[in-house]
Amino acid sequence: MEWVVKIGGSLFPEYSINLAQELVGEDVLIICGGGHLANQIREYHHELNFSPTTHHKTAIMCMDILGMLLADKVKGAEAVRSLEEVKKVRDEGKLPVLIPSMLLEYLDPLEHSWRVTSDSISLYISYLLEAKLLITTDVDGIYTHRPSLDGAQFIKEISAKKLLNFGETSLDESFAELLLKYKTSAYVVNGKHPERVMAILEGRSSINTFIGGD
Asked: How much of the chain, in percent, has pLDDT values that exceed 70?
């Protein structure tokens, strides 16, 4: 497996389906973010204060749901629940879409908090597979502050050490820490533009942010 591509939940449904269809035939594993479903759990948590383990596991279930829906709508994609299935489906020429809850329930590798989202989970899976990681979102990459605010500047390349000081960006708070821990790197790109994603996979220049963690 050469790449893990995390498709942000904010891209669901239209943009995520279009992007995944473009990725059929590539040496890629898809992981879906939890999108509005996970955000709704976060809102409930602010009101009701669930235990860390409960909100962690239920947010992962949201990744399961969007992954299953995505795999159902993309011709040539198939939902998988283990790393063994990832290899089997890829060898059959199909696009594996990970349904991660069972695997994460067994391994339970990450802290149970809102600092950890599908970004860090995708990074962990890419580490297990020794694959490169590409995170797709609904913005072009990392900015100096929230892109919707005046004066936000796009960052083409940044170190994980520097990103630590940013807190939560378009990535979760634990992401930079894990990049340093695993001594790996990642790309962040706007998934509304499949041609940018394909350019990165093919080693061509693209509008994206590269985060170096080694």
From this structure: 99
How many whole angstroms separate alpha carbon 208 and alpha carbon 156?
A: 6
**Residue spans of alpha helices (H) in 74-193:** 83-91, 101-107, 118-129, 160-163, 175-182
Nearest Cα to Cα of residue 172 among 124, 128, 100: 124
Residue among 84, 80, 93 nearest 23 (CA): 93
**Separation CA 26–CA 39 (nearest Å):** 30
The per-residue pLDDT for range 13-57, each reduced to its tens digit, is: 999 999 999 999 999 999 999 999 999 999 999 999 999 999 999
Q: Strand runs (DSSP E) across the chain, as ranges?
A: 3-7, 28-32, 77-80, 95-98, 132-137, 142-143, 154-155, 157-159, 185-190, 209-212
